[in-house]
Specification:
Shape: globular
Number of helices: 1
Oligomer: single chain
Structural class: mainly beta
Strand content: over 45%
Helix content: under 10%
Largest sheet: 15 strands, parallel
């Protein structure tokens, strides 16, 4: 294979990464690529409609959110609904919904949150002081401030220098940096088990 052919393949790969993004169907789970500018699409496998728009919440909202884009809950925002399904979720306000994120859930807020969280990576940023009344399941967890919750990580669990966990945690590995606190039971699992899939959502 010539150098020019390799360069062409590399350029085509860069083009695909720059102008296309991944999407997967809520209904059948089929994964495919769409243009980065696409706001909604239909699954080529089952025909289901998929929103790809980012959602920003600046006030109280009682509607469930279902998108493959990102969700941002601002400081004055509050979501009191059944579910939030998205890619990444960043919460600066109040969360009262079950969350299923294919990417990260990032918390920088204070207050009591209601609803189970399932995501790839769960992060509590510095300056937070949150209470989660329901369980948190993630592949990685990074705590840099205060949280009261029951947390499950199928991979690493990090408590930073200003991190404080009040509650029980289960993880494959736990790292508590100097200054970090754990006030609860710690359970280390010996094998990396996949995060349990979320239960199916039925729409009435």
């Amino acid at each position: 294979m010539s150098a020019s052919t390799l360069q062409k393949m590399k350029n085509e790969g860069m083009y695909r990464n720059q102008y296309f993004k991944d999407a997967d169907c809520f209904d059948c789970g089929h994964k495919f690529k769409v243009s980065r500018s696409t706001r909604s699409t239909q699954c080529p496998n089952c025909g289901g409609t998929i929103s790809l728009e980012d959602v920003e919440v600046n006030m109280h909202s009682g509607q469930s959110i279902k998108t493959r884009g990102d969700v941002l809950i601002r400081k004055r925002g509050q979501v009191s609904a059944e579910t939030i399904q998205c890619k990444d979720l960043r919460c600066q306000g109040i969360l009262e919904a079950n969350v299923m994120a294919t990417g990260d859930v990032i918390i920088r807020a204070s207050g009591t949150m209601i609803g189970e969280v399932r995501c790839r990576r769960f992060i509590v940023e510095k300056g937070s002081d949150v209470v989660f009344l329901n369980e948190i399941h993630a592949e990685e967890i990074d705590i840099q401030s205060r949280i009261t919750a029951t947390l499950f990580s199928s991979g690493p669990f990090v408590i930073g220098t200003q991190g404080s966990v009040n509650g029980d945690l289960t993880a494959r590995s736990v790292s508590i940096e100097p200054g970090g606190e754990l006030n609860g039971a710690m359970n280390i699992v010996r094998t990396k088990a996949a995060t349990p899939p979320p239960p199916p959502i039925t729409e009435e």
